[in-house]
Structure prediction request, 254 residues.
Amino acid sequence: MNFGAIIIGDEILSGKRQDKHLNRVIETLRMRGLQLAWAHYLGDDVDLITDTLRRTLAGSDAVLSFGGIGATPDDHTRQCAARAAGVELRLHPQAEAEIRGRFVNDSLGATPQRLAMGEFPAGSDIIPNPYNRIPGFSQGRHHFFPGFPEMAWPMLEWVLDTHYAELFAPGSITESSILVRGAGESQLISLMNDCLAHYRRVKVFSLPRIDPNDRHIELGVRGVPDEVNAAIAALKEGVSALGFRWSDPAQPSL
Prediction:
């Protein structure tokens, strides 16, 4: 199963706030032996959010969505998710209980505006929020979290540990790379293609650094450990055969 991420909010795209979710999702998945396959950043645009969710709901990926599930006028995610699925928004009874419990000692109580945060697409399940009891929701394999990291990240871990534990394989994905000096990427393409042809369970990556004081290419592989070890050995041998210097990261070049 692939995992995708959707991060919603004009404040991210305008630069008013810096996104912190993407790196956290990658690391949270990595610790469980999982990988992020794709990510989208979306502004607070109803049609764009709806169209994106309509497309992803029709697929088989697990989708982790952050932002826009509040009740202010710029929060559209709940409504867009309902439109994309062709269902109505309904006050979820468990969400209602959580919200009422959250504000039981508040002088205003559970106002209609506060209860609106528990209106989710019909058929959804709630995602508990340990920070303030205002839940998120799951719509099939789509999971919707608030934009606040202190709320969203514990909820993300709960979703993964509750719904996807059978997929966990810590240590099943590893990475290894070398720093190649004196070569251009085009001179390494045949070597990379040969590596992919021989080691089918790894991906090859090439990351040039163009700093004039330290020009090099980080050449590496990512995948299952046994093939990563064999593939990086083949890359080292191939780079040397081409006459280029290479080093392990933080090691002097050979």
Observations:
- The longest helix spans residues 225-241.
